[in-house]
Amino acid sequence: MIFHNTLISWYLQNKRDLPWRKTTNPYHIWLSEIMLQQTRVAQGMPYFLSFTTNFPTVFDLANADEEQVLKLWQGLGYYSRARNLHKTAQYIAFELDSQFPNNYNDLLKLKGVGEYTAAAIASFSYNEVVPVVDGNVFRVLARYFDIESDIAHAATKKEFTALAAELIPADQPALFNQAIMEFGALQCVPKNPDCENCVFSDSCLALQRKKVTLLPVKLKKTKVTNRYFNYMILEDAENKTLVQKRTQKGIWHNLYEFPLLETQKPEDFDFVSEAIEKELYKSENITTIYEYDHKRVIHKLSHQHLHIKFWKVVIEGTLSEGIDQIQLKTLPFPIVLHNFIEGI
Predict the structure, then answer these.
(1) Which domain range does residue 173 map to?
(2) In a 10 Å sphere around its CB, with 0-12 CB exposed, 13-18 middle and 19+ buried, how is residue 320 labelled?
(3) Over 60: is that where the pLDDT of 43 sits?
(4) Are residues 166 and 38 in the same domain?
């Protein structure tokens, strides 16, 4: 039995019951694919359901306020995805009359849509014969065919895409693409795959050559930067606090945060309190400064580790731009700050 027949047969017996697999609606498929980038299905599912409930159509999403979109996205991470999602929804709704492009090449022109996402929408919505190549596909093909090319290189993606294009059946492109991704997600997993109970146990070259743990090859290491954030939680006589919007480029763009003191290294109470009193809030009458917790919260992003401390700063009088707890909880925050707010 040839590769795609075995794979599709496995898929039909083992596939998960996922809502975006029950439709060819490009809006729903686009939403799911954007949400599942760098995200596990279990984590992405409630967000998908929330978005499709709050924004049933691409026109509804386009008409939403960006803060509403970011608030619903809160906790999913990689927030540029949400901002691009919103801008692309506006483009489709207002420039394309709510009609999605119906082919791979035109889908590729949408903001936030790369080769993988364009291929997924084109095949799942329009049954176009174009292969999807994501991390799961890299892993399955690298192991089955014993390919040692470094997947961190752009040339390798072209190599795998060409191979997948040879394997994809012209009459079942959507089914094949779903199947190979699902196989990588459930069976040919990164660590400790159950190779003995695999439909390809007799033909997988990596298994035969005892190279399963070595493939796929990825030599490029991600350089991680450590950053040290000190957040000031101001509180005035009316129990109001102060927040600011992150408008600069970089992490958490257009999300809210408390006033921030970023330092080059971990700093103690004396350093931070002096900075608060002498540099940051000279005009305010500060009565008390203390740490919420002596431990730092370490929040790990793909390329950065944020070492976060929270400082309570009590102000005599009122803050002219202060907001109360009710308003505070309506704003979109990075998940680490949202969790802090929920805990105080």
Answers:
(1) 3-131+158-188
(2) exposed
(3) yes
(4) yes
